[in-house]
């Protein structure tokens, strides 16, 4: 029986291993992590992450051929294939701070694998890592191997949160990169045989190590670039009276462009896009390619500009001040169908409004009050470091006085001067907006950062509506947003 062990029980490791266990009943799969509360949650009825369909998969396999454990060394030692799915946060200090990936956790995982291994192993990079990480890991393993052979593979994940289980069941492609040696090719075939249980062979792509590592960064950079491109167009649409949804549809019907990732919004978020582009920028700079680095930097600059532009639009529309005004924030997760708040645009929007002394009432169906308060008190990049290094509560009591987290959209909206829709949860489309209007201060504003509301219908009720990239309400034309 082949044994697989995955180090890291997060958004990648947990769902990926659960699906492998489901599709390969003859393989024993163990997910290990040093975080006891996280492993306890994986073994409970309340999983540590929210992902549609994940509960069912875990419950079908857990205790049969899928296990979650804190006994890291034991299971790594027994495994034939070890996936490493640990954090690769952006460095916050030292060489490459603010851009380079911090490989501390990766390196300690590699040293531990070398220490405890008593048999040959295939070590699989599952985390997003900089190009040439495999070479560094290989050196650590080789210099500490005690006669044991290690083969390093790169098998980047291309999951989208909210659809991760569907993506795993039916992937566009599975990418496996390895050394172009007989041993490396044999390792590729061993991992390919696992995925071949359910993925058609023509969708399993095999490359060299560096191509696989770079492909992950390139994929995320290209997707983020599309979002920044349409968001840049949204600003121009507002200035000219064009409708970004119509422009997106028009260009999306061109088969060379396609319709995906062309929805204008308040900005992209999630754990990967910004981090991977910063990583790409750093690699380009290190390889003497400043022009290429500057090109990718611009994708992040436009994303930051979009969030700032949104905040400026809110403040300028409401008589140039939100001081003391209640603003309802609908949605805090970076996208619907996930509770993940990493790099969510809501953080920067909320901080911008708090900077103008607004009072925020925040509602998200999947994000806890503790998480929201922690996110609003953190410095940039702190979110991706271990929990014990993160602030446990807001640093100032002022923040707590300015922010309340509620568990009902109508409660958030009651007596508010304005509403900001920051996540495209389906329930926000179905609210009774007549009731909402009656319970708000007048004039009542809605700032739709996801283009989910029916602006025409809301204007008929009496709202002043701002939708990203759409022709401006006459009120907003008279109060232009300053950039």
TrEMBL record:
Transmembrane segments: none annotated. The active site is at residue 272. The keyword NAD applies. GO terms for cellular component: nucleus. The keyword Cell cycle does not apply. Keywords: NAD, Oxidoreductase. GO terms for molecular function: NAD binding; UDP-glucose 6-dehydrogenase activity. Pathway: Nucleotide-sugar biosynthesis; UDP-alpha-D-glucuronate biosynthesis; UDP-alpha-D-glucuronate from UDP-alpha-D-glucose: step 1/1. It is an enzyme of class 1 (oxidoreductase). It catalyses: UDP-alpha-D-glucose + 2 NAD(+) + H2O = UDP-alpha-D-glucuronate + 2 NADH + 3 H(+). InterPro entries: 6-PGluconate_DH-like_C_sf (IPR008927), NAD(P)-bd_dom_sf (IPR036291), UDP-Glc/GDP-Man (IPR017476), UDP-Glc/GDP-Man_DH_C (IPR014027), UDP-Glc/GDP-Man_DH_C_sf (IPR036220), UDP-Glc/GDP-Man_DH_dimer (IPR014026), UDP-Glc/GDP-Man_DH_N (IPR001732), UDPglc_DH_euk (IPR028356). Residues 328-455 form the UDP-glucose/GDP-mannose dehydrogenase C-terminal domain. Its EC number is 1.1.1.22. NAD(+) binds at residues 8-13, 33, 38, 86-90, 127-128, 161, 272-275, 342. One of its GO terms (biological process) is UDP-glucuronate biosynthetic process. Belongs to the UDP-glucose/GDP-mannose dehydrogenase family. This is UDP-glucose 6-dehydrogenase. It comes from Crotalaria pallida. The lineage of its organism: Eukaryota, Viridiplantae, Streptophyta, Embryophyta, Tracheophyta.
């Amino acid at each position: 029986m082949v044994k697989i062990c995955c180090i890291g029980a997060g958004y990648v490791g947990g769902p990926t291993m659960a699906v492998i266990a489901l599709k390969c009943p003859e393989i024993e799969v163990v997910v290990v992590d040093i975080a006891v509360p996280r492993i306890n949650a994986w073994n409970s009825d309340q999983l540590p992450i929210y992902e549609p369909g994940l509960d069912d998969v875990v419950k079908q396999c857990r205790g049969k051929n899928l296990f979650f454990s804190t006994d890291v060394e034991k299971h790594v030692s027994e495994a034939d294939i070890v996936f490493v799915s640990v954090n690769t946060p952006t460095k916050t200090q030292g060489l490459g701070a603010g851009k380079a990936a911090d490989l501390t956790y990766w390196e300690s995982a590699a040293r531990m694998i070398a220490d405890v291994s008593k048999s040959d192993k295939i070590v699989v990079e599952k985390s997003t890592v900089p190009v040439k990480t495999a070479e560094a890991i290989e050196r650590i393993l080789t210099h500490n191997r005690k006669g044991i052979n290690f083969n390093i593979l790169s098998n980047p994940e291309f999951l989208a949160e909210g659809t991760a289980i569907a993506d795993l069941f039916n992937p566009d492609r599975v990418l496996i990169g390895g050394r172009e040696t007989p041993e490396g090719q044999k390792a590729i075939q061993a991992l390919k045989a696992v995925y071949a249980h359910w993925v058609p062979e023509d969708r399993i792509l095999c490359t060299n190590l560096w191509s696989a590592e770079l492909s992950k960064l390139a994929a995320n950079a290209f997707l983020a670039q599309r979002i920044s491109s349409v968001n840049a167009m949204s600003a121009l649409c507002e200035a000219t009276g064009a409708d970004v949804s119509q422009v997106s549809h028009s260009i999306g019907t061109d088969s060379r462009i396609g319709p995906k990732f062309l929805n204008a919004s308040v900005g992209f978020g999630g754990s990967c896009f910004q981090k991977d582009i910063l990583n790409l920028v750093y690699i380009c700079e290190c390889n003497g390619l400043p022009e290429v680095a500057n090109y990718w930097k611009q994708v992040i600059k436009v994303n930051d500009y979009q969030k700032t532009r949104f905040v400026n639009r809110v403040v300028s529309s409401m008589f140039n001040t939100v001081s003391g005004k209640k603003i309802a924030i609908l949605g805090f997760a970076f996208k619907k169908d996930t509770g993940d708040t990493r790099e969510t645009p809501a953080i920067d929007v909320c901080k911008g409004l708090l900077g103008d002394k607004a009072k925020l009432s925040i509602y998200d169906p999947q994000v806890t009050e503790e998480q929201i308060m922690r996110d609003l008190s953190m410095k940039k990049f702190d979110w991706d470091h271990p929990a014990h290094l993160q602030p446990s509560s807001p640093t100032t009591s002022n923040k707590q006085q300015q922010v309340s987290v509620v568990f009902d959209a109508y409660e958030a909206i009651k007596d508010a001067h304005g509403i900001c829709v920051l996540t495209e949860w389906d329930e926000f489309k179905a609210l009774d907006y007549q009731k909402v209007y009656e319970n708000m201060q007048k004039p009542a504003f809605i700032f739709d950062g996801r283009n989910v509301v029916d602006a025409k219908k809301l204007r008929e009720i009496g709202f002043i509506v701002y939708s990203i990239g759409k022709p401006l309400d006459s009120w907003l034309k008279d109060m232009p947003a300053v950039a």
